[in-house]
């Protein structure tokens, strides 16, 4: 795949996301988020992804228009109750990796 094909693929995907934003906000906006802000975010994140793979940036949006969204997108920032996840610190010493051939002596195929 050539440079222009990759570039066009990113731009087309961004346009599809903007079309989706238009659909989502067809009946109005909500506090802190509307179609224009979401479209700016799509442009911002598309620029970041394109820069990461060495493509030119197609959009003027250079800063995150909704920085508060990172709180929800980065899972490390979300506090989870221990009963809702498997906490790896509770599993220390739970696995015995040493297997002796005598352990398998009664095993039949």
From TrEMBL:
Superkingdom of this protein's organism: Bacteria
Alphabetical GO biological process terms: deoxyribonucleotide biosynthetic process
Gene Ontology molecular-function annotations: oxidoreductase activity
The name this protein goes by in its record: Uncharacterized protein
Alphabetized InterPro entries for the sequence: Ferritin-like_SF (IPR009078), RNR-like (IPR012348), RNR_small_fam (IPR000358)
SUPFAM superfamilies linked: Ferritin-like
Needed cofactors: Fe cation
One Pfam family hit: Ribonuc_red_sm
